[in-house]
Amino acid sequence: MNANLLPQHIQETVDAIRNFGNFSAHPINDKTSLQVIDLIQKAMPLYWLCYLHNNQTCVVIEPAHSLIHARLRAALDGLDEGEFTEGHELPRRWKVAEQMIGRRLSQADAKRLLAKFE
Fold first, then answer.
1. Most CB atoms closer than 10 Å: which of 7, 30, 82, 111?
2. Domain-by-domain residue ranges, the chain?
3. Residue 49 and residue 11: Cα distance in Å, rounded?
4. With the C-alpha atoms ordered 21, 24, 29, 32, is the resulting torsion angle positive or negative?
5. Over the stretch 46-103, which tens digit does the pLDDT of each residue have?
């Protein structure tokens, strides 16, 4: 693929999708590699993804290079149950607790988290 033909954000998204395919096809068993992946994920922006399921809003926070990458990660982790309604990149200055990342947050949990940043 000629890097000059696609905008940077599309290149990054395509690369992220390719990486997910590689991880799925070739599981990593080396703990050192997993530590490197963990460091890379911590450097990525966080995305706030909202889903409507059974008349309840739930939120998923995912580290990713782009919104589509975050949605893909949520889907691969089985966290995208319901209808996707919106997604936003969180400001980098927001410090989100690690246990809040990569799981479904209830509407109450999401409100408590937002209250910390207001």
1. 82
2. 8-117
3. 22
4. positive
5. 999 999 988 988 999 999 989 999 999 999 999 999 999 999 999 888 888 888 899 9
CB atoms within 10 A of CB 38: 10
Give the amino acid at 27. P
d(CA 48, CA 34): 24
3-class state of residue 112 by DSSP: helix
Sign of the Cα torsion 77, 79, 85, 86 reads: negative
Residue 9: partners with Cβ closer than 8 Å, 6 or more residues away: 66
Residues in the chain: 118
Spell out the residues 6+ positions from residue 81 whose beta carbon is closer than 8 angstroms to its own: 51, 53, 58, 104
What letter does residue 96 receive in the DSSP assignment? Answer: -
Judge whether 65 and 47 are in contact, CB under 8 Å: no
